[in-house]
Amino acid sequence: MGDIKEEIEFNNLNKIESNNKNYIELNTEEENIEKKEEKTKKEKIKKYGNLILIYLMNSNKPKIVIGPDWKFFIIGFICLIIYSFLIIYILLFHSNIYLKIIGFIIIVLELLFYLLSFLVDPGIQLKRPNDKNLNHQICLFCGVIKYNNVNQFHCDECNACIIGYDHHCPWIGKCVGKNNLFYFRMFIFSVFANFAYIILIISTIDFE
Predict the structure, then answer these.
(1) The pairing of beta strand 160-163 with beta strand 167-169
(2) Phi then psi for 194, rounded to 5 degrees?
(3) In the list 41, 126, 129, 172, which could disulfide-bond 117, CB 3.0-4.6 Å?
(4) What b/e string do you get for 30-41 counting C-beta neighbours within 10 Å, with b at 16 or more?
(5) Which residues does 166 contact at the CB level (< 8 Å), separation at least 6?
């Protein structure tokens, strides 16, 4: 009987130790999963040069890029909103519904293109040399690949190489490059359209 009891106690101790090991392993796995999730969340926002890169929907390329001169954009965007409200106020005196609709469309497009110029990745070159692409030139400042047949320039303000570099614009906070050049040009076009429109509206309004 004594031997049986000892054997039962020994088996129970083994079960307890086994359960404890499983519990520890489960906790360790959960901790590792949590750490991986935290790491993934942290990696969605990266600092690159003087830029802030934001990755969305597990993309390999940044969807949103905030430039070093973002304060100028905030000032410009606030001024543009105030200007837009001024135009809306002027439109209230006009009786032509079609001119009002055109005015609202121009205002919305102007704000939209300005915002997209600020948010969209201008075309940052992130590829670094490896065993497969050692034949390409390397940027001396940031160490990325420089393709011979591509317009690529290292911007000192952004501290990054921009593909399709046009110029650095502080009012959108960063460079104008391949990916946001269209939005920037459409913003400039909408600004001129806005000026022409407001001159037309003021000349046709009867304030009396």
Answers:
(1) unpaired
(2) -65, -45
(3) 172
(4) eeeeeeeeeeee
(5) 175, 176, 177, 181, 184
